[in-house]
Design brief:
Distance between the termini: 61 Å
Structural class: alpha+beta
Radius of gyration: 23 Å
Order of helices and strands: HHHHEEEEEEEEEEEEEH
Number of domains: 1
Number of strands: 13
Oligomer: single chain
Length: 315
Amino acid sequence: MDRHRSFGLSDLLVIATALLLLAAIAAPWVAMARDEARATGCQDHMRTIAKACRGFAEVHQDSLPSNRRQPHTGWNTLVLPFMDQAKLYDKYDLSLEWYEGGNRDVGMNALSTLVCPAAPHADRVIRLLDPDGKEFSAKATDYVASSGAYLHTNQPERLYRGAMASPGRHYGASNVTAGHAVRLNEITDGLANTFLVVEMADKPNGWRAGKLHDDKSADKTHRPLVDGFSFGQWIAPNWNHLRSYDNDGQNQFGDCAVNCSNEGSLYSFHPGKAYAAMADGSAMPIRAGLEQEVLIALVSIADGELIATEDFQAE
């Protein structure tokens, strides 16, 4: 009787050990599958955004959406009808600033298409002060318009014009002042090789090379807003002039233009890549560590750089 019981206990130990071993072996595969599912979701979001921008252009004389002034209006708001959000768009008053009146209520809508499934703090809000000092909040996005890019320095003469350039801004490296929103036919460097919108995830939290160095998720402080600029709220004019960083994400204009810093640079939570919405309506995985010269070629719209997909696409 004792021998049978001993054998049974040993059997259970063997089975338990085998199950633990199988779980250990399977864990990396499960994590990989989860990462890939999140990446696919993010790519789908970016593709939706790219098609929405092109849909906007189709009914606006080929002009892409652009952040407007007087009153300030973000490009995200303008493409809402092309993202199955016509009812939300109808609630927005284009005669007011994005933070005035009922527009504040619009900005507190969380739009899943504007958030990457892989990014942390999906429900974060941006806490702000209006010009009268009154507190309000707006929901965040992980995606930013590619308005331009700096090469080697943030001086105007090194700023290249992007597809979502802001009217009135001088882009010295491209030798042009943007007098209007960019038209698709002005993108002569190739629609498939030109950014519209890129990942710059989890702002206003600050990330450097995979490490959170400035955690604002528990910060209840409301910061004064800046006209024509977003701290990560989707409803404000949401753009950036992109640049590279060094590999640890501390200093600008190093060798790494993807996944080294989310402070004015492409940044995602996908291993080895970040996604970008392209001017042809596609969404492309851009390889981590991209060189800043290749970044310039992907941002600029009519400066004659020669670039192939293998120069920037992640595997």
